[in-house]
Amino acid sequence: MKILVTVKEVAEAEDDFDIDGLDIDDRYLEYDLNEWDEYAIEEAVQIKEDGEDVEVVSVTIGPERAEETIRMALAKGVDRAIRVWDDDVAATDVLDPATKADVLAAVVEQEEPDLVFTGVQAGDDSFGATGVALAETIGFEWGAVVNALDLDAEEGVANVHRELEGGIEELTEIQLPSVLTIQTGINEPRYASLRGIRQAQSKPLDVQTLSDLGLDAGVLESPLQRTEMYEPESEGEAVVFEGSSEDTAGELADLLQDVGVVEG
Amino acid sequence: MSDVLAVAEHRQGELRDVSFELVTVGRQLAADQGGELHLAVIGGDVDAFADELNLDGVSVIHTVDAGEEFNHDIYTQVTEQLFEEIEPSTLLLPNSVNGLDYAPAIASRLDVPLVTDAVDIARDGTTEVTREMYGSKVETTVAVDDDTVAVSIRPAEWEATDADGDADVVAFDADIDESAVKSTVTGFEEVAGGDVDISEAEFLVSIGRGIEEEDNLPLIEELVEATDATLSSSRPIVDNGWLPKNRQVGQSGKVVTPDVYLAIGISGAVQHVAGMKGSDTIVAINTDPNAPIMDLADYAIVDDLFDVVPELIDALE
Ligand SMILES: Cc1cc2nc3c(=O)[nH]c(=O)nc-3n(C[C@H](O)[C@H](O)[C@H](O)COP(=O)(O)OP(=O)(O)OC[C@H]3O[C@@H](n4cnc5c(N)ncnc54)[C@H](O)[C@@H]3O)c2cc1C
């Protein structure tokens, strides 16, 4: 069996930042592996560790910088990785879910996995749509916001829990091949061991261009365009306690007593 | 090509709030474009749902008798067929968990661009959708260069419509290809039961990822004890297994309405806010003055929780 895990290096904004045009100035961005993808990787690696013959392949669309992130996936037990990038991708402003799905579909065609795991959403642009869009593009069945998985490969069924709102879970049987978007909490992602990190250095990490995947730059054309970015106007009318920690804590203690939730 | 089609959401026999919010967004967009608002309600007691959804600004309600509960394979097929019949310019869906489970599929199948988690939509020739990025630290506008668009709206962002209307209710006979239904919902399960019901608490001390390590829990427990408060948390604390699931506040956790909600090291992600914004008084302790929780807080301390919390315990003793 082969499991393809899509991963993304996401940008996080520092506490203080400036916006430069249509994005936060790169100086204020820190990059990390997307939180939801960590759980997707762990889920795939655990299936491999339980099963007889499972290969786990990770794919990302990302610049060279992202290789550090991908190596973390390799260090956690992913067997090999693919990074898709070229000048045309680099020049694209918004990679919307449909575009990503088209690019990832070409990777699926090449790799022919039985299962694809993605994170529920990416922490930076939070579209929350790539996994399901990919499923539709490649004709796989799917399940979104999966927080428990019991795979019955022989029967060709994934039994999943989907985490709905308000503490309710839906139990669903999904036919394979399928794409599952993985929710945090489904497992406990491991830390990469030193040995894992060392081994990751020698695992294959292929860089593929669009033309390697049989695509041309037309696939990047998107009707979506970011036209503005700004800090939302604060609706907040918070009273900010000022001073030393002792002062502010004192004011808060008084407040709690005034409101009556603690005894004065 | 100026109509709007919105698909309602229901679960276990009840329409979800977002269905009424879809009406608010949909009728505004339809009015802006000089079109009509069509609603679809798929599965469940469709006639009763149609009654409830017969609201001001709705022109037609399409009822589709297709199973009891949400099944994405059926919703995708039905929505596609309705879309082809009505030919709307805008397809509106909820950005709920089930929205996440079929909006991208339907958009992809119809080859219509999708913008998710909208907090505002303007339509003036082109569609401009406002959404958030970087954990709600910034807002962006996304312009859609296409005549048709699918947009999923953030729940609880618009007021619900509740004024009565006089829509036509028509049964839509969908042609379901059963062989394409490859997922089966077999049941539901409630989680998050247990010893403590945080939704009953008057004073919640709630912790987030800012506490960094499980070893720091005793510090907070000391505060909880000193104040006779109830301990709750954001999701990562539960994901890490530091607190049980019944302590999680938010979209997938519990909705709480205490007198005071003290958010310690919590950023205020939208799914967290969904569970606590109804609190009477919100207090935030956070090192980041730009954290989204600050927009919601009545009182705030911009400081390191590891400095403030021990002082707070002292001050209360
Ligand atoms: C479908 C779905 C459902 C979800 N459901 C829920 C839900 O029910 N509940 C929920 O909470 N989340 C939910 N989430 C997750 C949510 O998106 C966020 O990831 C989560 O709420 C973030 O938790 P946090 O605020 O504790 O962590 P972070 O966002 O990491 O914030 C930590 C905060 O701590 C501050 N901080 C750090 N160090 C200190 C310090 N020393 N002193 C003071 N402050 C400090 C930081 O400035 C930051 O603001 C859901 C997500 C999805 C996709």
From TrEMBL, chain A:
Q: Which UniProt keywords apply?
A: Electron transport, Transport
Specify the Electron transfer flavoprotein alpha/beta-subunit N-terminal domain's residue ranges. 21-217
Q: Would you say which domain of life the source belongs to?
A: Archaea
Q: Recorded GO terms, molecular function?
A: electron transfer activity
The answer to whether keyword Electron transport applies is yes
The record's family statement is: Belongs to the ETF beta-subunit/FixA family.
What is the protein name stated in its UniProt record? Electron transfer flavoprotein subunit beta/FixA family protein
Give the originating organism. Answer: Halocatena salina
TrEMBL record, chain B:
What the entry lists under SUPFAM superfamilies is as follows: Adenine nucleotide alpha hydrolases-like, DHS-like NAD/FAD-binding domain
Query: One biological-process term from Gene Ontology?
Result: fatty acid beta-oxidation using acyl-CoA dehydrogenase
The record's annotation in CDD domains points to: ETF_alpha
- UniProt-recorded Gene Ontology molecular function terms: electron transfer activity; flavin adenine dinucleotide binding
SMART domains referenced in this protein's UniProt entry, alphabetically:
ETF
Q: Which residues form a coiled coil?
A: none
Q: Which Gene3D superfamilies match?
A: HUPs (3.40.50.620), TPP-binding domain (3.40.50.1220)
Domain named Electron transfer flavoprotein alpha/beta-subunit N-terminal: residues: 4-190
Tell me where the signal peptide lies: none
Q: What domain of life?
A: Archaea
Give the similarity note: Belongs to the ETF alpha-subunit/FixB family.
- This protein is called what? Electron transfer flavoprotein subunit alpha/FixB family protein
Species source reads Halocatena salina
